[in-house]
Design goal:
Elements: H1 4-30, H2 53-66, H3 71-88, H4 92-107, H5 113-125, H6 129-140, H7 147-159, H8 163-176, H9 180-192, H10 196-208, H11 215-231, H12 235-248, H13 253-256
Helix pairs in contact: 2-3, 3-4, 3-5, 4-5, 5-6, 5-7, 6-7, 7-8, 7-9, 8-9, 9-10, 9-11, 10-11, 11-12
Length: 257
């Protein structure tokens, strides 16, 4: 079917192909396996738009204007102001959150744990940790304790230097609410007592559980990792974690330090 010249050409082509295959196989064996990307150095939900806090504020402002004695609507408006303050860094919204929560308490004092929790969050943001702890504890003592109240109690105890109490509460909180939000206070307790490696494991465990609607939490988890890297003399690694924190939530204060 083929003449001798064509057969010779085909043989040479086949030898070239075999030689090339051997070279590629050898090159592949010598390559180092690619390291798996660190999920903490990026934000996987960046393409998902977060909630519009401004629209939420506008909605509840109208509701409270129509029904000025609706204490639940005032709680919702105070919560929206609190979110705006946390996302934007504009402290004037903490003032609005505090006043609106106080107005809600004037309308309904008994059982108004939502207003108390907003006041606890505002005081925590102002570093008034004694007040934030007492307010969160007052919710805890009603028997209506939840993850938020126990988390604020834990973080306040850490800042007050009451580390044994904080660790015990953080462990109890995680048992009751096993999620990324309850792992962060426990990690903070470990950091406070110098157990950074244990804290790192907890933070990575929390990152595996993060959800799209938890941008503030996602940013804080990465900021804590960045702070640890800075303490251990790794500014490059720290910068990557801080950059990822900013991806999760713009103007996240710890990431801008």
């Amino acid at each position: 079917l083929f003449n001798s010249r064509e057969e010779e050409t085909m043989k040479k082509s086949l030898l070239y192909i075999l030689a090339a295959a051997q070279i590629l196989a050898l090159w592949g064996c010598q390559q180092k396996p690619k390291t798996k990307a660190d999920p903490a150095k990026g934000y996987q939900f960046g393409q998902i738009a977060g909630p519009s806090v401004d629209k939420e504020i506008a909605f509840y402002r109208k509701k409270t204007e129509r029904n000025p004695r609706g204490f639940l609507d005032k709680i919702s408006l105070a919560g929206a102001y609190l979110s705006k303050a946390q996302f934007s860094g504009d402290t004037s919204f903490f003032v609005l959150a505090e006043k609106t929560a106080q107005d809600s308490l004037k309308l309904q004092k008994d059982g108004n744990t939502g207003a108390l929790m907003i006041l606890a969050s505002v005081n925590e943001a102002r570093h008034e940790f004694g007040k934030s702890y007492e307010l969160a504890k007052s919710v805890h003592d009603t028997g209506k304790s939840d993850l938020d109240s126990q988390s604020i109690m834990t973080s306040s105890l850490v800042e007050l230097g009451r580390l044994e109490e904080a660790t015990k509460l953080a462990e109890e909180t995680f048992k009751a609410f096993p999620c990324s939000a309850s792992l962060m206070p426990l990690a903070r307790c470990k950091i406070a007592v110098g157990k950074d490696e244990e804290a790192r494991k907890l933070l990575f465990r929390a990152l595996k559980l993060e959800q799209p609607g938890e941008r503030k939490l996602s940013a804080r988890l990465r900021s804590l990792l960045g702070e640890m890297e800075l303490r251990h003399g790794h500014p490059g690694e720290a910068g990557q974690y801080f950059e990822a924190a900013l991806q999760a939530q713009n103007s996240h204060a710890p990431a801008l330090l």
